[in-house]
Amino acid sequence: MSRTEEEPGVRLLDTDSSDVRFKDALSELFAGDGTVYIVSGYFTYQGYRAIRDDIVSFLERSHENELVAVVSPASDQFSPRIAYDLWGMDDNDQVRLYKQPRGLHAKLYIRDGPEPTCILGSANITQIAFKYNTEINVQITRDTIDHPDVRQFRDWMVELVESSEPLRRRDLFAPFQVGGSVINWSNKARHLPRRNVALRAVPVIIILIFFSGMFSWLFSLI
């Protein structure tokens, strides 16, 4: 199906060749009113900075607007500076941040309200995804959130929020974040052949211990 034949309300988003870039579509999500839900496996500070003005305008435009985000507080997946900045601007209890204890790899972005929009695909909220990686995403816009094309994703998101826990400041301390990364990788290792895990475990553990403090500091800058 050519782009001129695409179903109305459905757009292809990628890094280079589509008419609309993923980052621009993400900004458009905050141009409407309602609740914006975000789940991003990797959420870096520079990625956040690229859409921060859009978030600020969204929250200031109406006190009824809300931002709900589910993140992994592991050191290699989420920058604490994002949470502190959002909490600092949240004077009207419009921001809710949650942590997902399981490995978080999903990427889904939804706004309910008038002309609800859903974006799903491969892209995280990172500068690398915005400008460098080969990414593929689809944006779906419908007249009502009850339309099955978007309702199923909103329902999935609501269930994810309900199964998650509120993000706390202690979760953002470097030792807890590094510990989260170790737990995530340990859980993943359980699903791999033991021989593969054994061959990689020792050097990985040494690297994690040696670089944990440095890595947490560097990741907080990007």
TrEMBL record:
Sequence intervals crossing the membrane: 197-219
UniProt keyword terms in alphabetical order: Membrane, Transmembrane, Transmembrane helix
Domain of life: Archaea
Phospholipase D-like domain location: 91-145
Protein name in UniProt: Phospholipase D-like domain-containing protein
A Pfam family per the record: PLDc_2
Protein's UniProt keywords contain Transmembrane: yes
InterPro entries in UniProt: PLD-like_dom
SUPFAM superfamilies the UniProt entry points to: Phospholipase D/nuclease
